[in-house]
Amino acid sequence: MKTALCIIILFGSLPAIGQSVQRPVLIGIDVAKPVLSLVTPDRPQFRLAEATVKIPIAKGRYLSIMGGYGSLNSDAVSRTVLINAQGGYAKLGTEKIHPDGLVTGWHGLVSSVHEQGAFLFKGPVFGDYSEPTFTRQRVSVGFEGHLGYQRTLSNHLIFRVSGRVGMAGLFGNRVDDIKAVFVPGLGYVIGDPVVVGFGLGLHLFFRTNPRPVAVSLP
Question: Which of 28, 60, 79, 133 is the most buried (most CB within 10 A)?
């Protein structure tokens, strides 16, 4: 009797083995950027793409990794000056997904910025003519904060809308007094060499299958 009681006490004091659900990884794309590329094919001409991976690191908190490419072609910075900008970018940060769907977070940003400028000659008779004026290659380093809201569409799909504001410094030879207009990863910007950009994103996420894992239950 004493042996049986000891066994019961011993097993009662050990942690029980239960099942938990591993937090899923989110893989997404920005669906707004490809649409802009289609509906504005000429002026200004956008070529934009962005992908993101959200890796769970704690309850409701994710490591956020983003990468993309953007370009803005033949955008007039004045009546007589055109500038084309393009390049790739990478972002790394964290975000918090709240139970009500609110999303808050931040990213560090690094991007390459290749710019080409041209002087525009208006031609009322024979059409406009542009003459190249400069080419410059720069790098931007900065950060951004974002605020969004997401809604679950199905077991695997999540739709999110988010706004962001970012600040970065442009490093490299400026060549002349023409300020930057577009920085990949930030979008349209104001200022130079310190730039500020604002943006809006529409993301569609695929949620990976959660897998049961064994955990210790007290």
Answer: 28
pTM recorded for the entire structure = 0.77
Q: What is the pLDDT of residues 18-47, one digit of tens each?
A: 444 567 899 999 887 666 666 555 545 556
**Neighbouring residues of 66: CB distance < 8 A, sequence distance ≥ 6:** 50, 51, 52, 53, 90, 91, 92, 107
- Three-state DSSP at 11 gives helix
In SS3 terms, 65-105 reads as EEEEEEEEEEEECCCCEEEEEEEEEEEEEEEEECCCCEEEE
Helix/strand/coil percent split, the chain, to 5 = 10, 65, 25
pLDDT of residue 9 exceeding 50: no
Q: Which two tokens stand for residue 150?
A: 């997401």
